[in-house]
Structures are given as C-alpha cells and as structure tokens.
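Minimal example, chain plus adenosine-5'-diphosphate.
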Amino acid sequence: MTEWVISLGGTKDVQLIIDGKRTDGRTLDELRAIRIEAGVIPEADGSSYIEWGNNKIVCGVYGPRECIPRHGASPYGATLKCRYMMSPFSSLEEHSRSGPSRRSNELSKVIREALENVLLLGKFPNTQIEIYIDVLQADGGTRTASLTAAAVALANAGIPMKDMVAAVAVGKASETLVVDLNKPEDNLGQSDMPIAMSHRDKNLLLVQMDGLLTKEEISKMLDMVEKSCDEIHEVQADALRRIYKTEQKEPFRW
Ligand code: ADP
C-alpha cells in the first residue's frame, strides 16, 4: 500500500507517479478530458460550461452595459468585473469553505487581470462587462478551467479580443514534471504553477506558483504549457464553431 507522508517542512513526499503513470492513469503531459459548450445561458450575453476532468464550471457574461455605480465608469474603456465562486457542494469534504473568501477574491482578480490583457475594452467607454463564474464541482485546476471557460463566454458575447486565451496548471509531483494537475497532485505535489497563455502571441497572461522549481524546470514547463494550451484552444474553438453552425443542433444538456 502507498504510504502517504506529508513532512512538516512543507515538502510533500507522496508517491504520485508510479511507472510513469499518474494517480488517474494519465501520462505526464496528458490533459484530463475537456468538454466545452458555449451559449448555455439564454439570458446572458455570452456563456459557457466546461467539464474538465471532474471540474464542472458555468460562466455567464453580461455587457457591455451601463456601469453601476456610475462613478466606477471610465471614459477610456469598459470596466471589467469578475466574480469567481465555489458552490457549497463543489468539493464535498471541504464544503464549509465555499462562498466569498480571500481565495475567491484572489481568483476573481487574477482571472480578470489575465483577460484584461486581450479584451479591447477601449471600444466601450463608460460601460461595464461582468463575468460570473460558478464552480459546481471542483477537482483541482478550477482557476485555469474558469479562465478557459470565461474566454469562450466572452467570445460568445461578441466582445472583441485581440487574442484567445487558454490556461492550464503545470507542476511537479514525485520529482516529475506533470501537466494539468488533479486535486491530489495540486494538494500533495511539490509544486504547482497555473499559467494562462494567449493563443497567437504566446504571451503569458497569468503565472502563479507555489513550491520550488529550478530555471530549467520552468523552461521545460513553459514548453509543456504551450503544447497543452494549443490542445485546449482547439476545444474552445470547436465549442464556438458549433454554436454558430446553422444546421440542426443537439440541445445543450447539463
Ligand atoms: P485551483 O482550483 O485553481 O487548483 P487551489 O490550488 O486553491 O485552486 O485549490 C485546489 C483544489 O482544492 C480546488 O480545485 C478544490 O478542489 C480544492 N479547494 C481549494 N479551496 C477550496 C475551498 N475553499 N472550498 C472547496 N474546495 C477547495
């Protein structure tokens, strides 16, 4: 039986890779299955639903519309607002930690700042654009899955963007670099680095990190992220293409 040991020094020595396979059977650079649907909330200007492994997240975009309160309006462009929230049942063993928190404030902020880099907000002075992200089920990587879904919802709302954005976490578990960390890898691995990248320019729009990594490891990880973000972009583009197809579509089912 695998022995689970978490040392007090902050280093987490847990066997997460056995014979090149991860706890969920994936190879080191394999993404979890991703499904994205666009236009799932008829009342919203744009929306999306993402299932990424066991993560389930819904995103609604409203605007550009009147900025409230009005003193928050900018004559230079739209004010982008983002609210990320976990549902009380999103992560069963941790249900008491849902709702507004320092973590949800932080995630709302980093998602907003990443997207501000690509949205052409200057075209809509004195307005606001709101992004609401609700995590229905969480299994590690909700900030990257949320960002990926929000980019699709914004495109679905017709908000002009200079580039599309995809995001994924890379990290180190059992001394091995892995892409798209699941919850055990996120919580018990040695290092975790969520990254958002623009599709065409390959600019880094979000980089966070915990744990310890060398310069060489970070460089390898950025290559892994680039390849993964290209794969994720294909799923995003497919979701958007499908919604604008004219032939009879399968109705969206939750
Ligand atoms: P991310 O979801 O972007 O990986 P964290 O690294 O903070 O963000 O969290 C890893 C995972 O731990 C989450 O996806 C979720 O499954 C769980 N988790 C973290 N914080 C909470 C919380 N407040 N309530 C419920 N689950 C949480």
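Residues 86, 90-91, 94, 97-98, 101, 103, 138-143, 183, 186-187, 194 surround adenosine-5'-diphosphate (CB under 6 Å). DSSP finds four helices and 14 strands in the chain.
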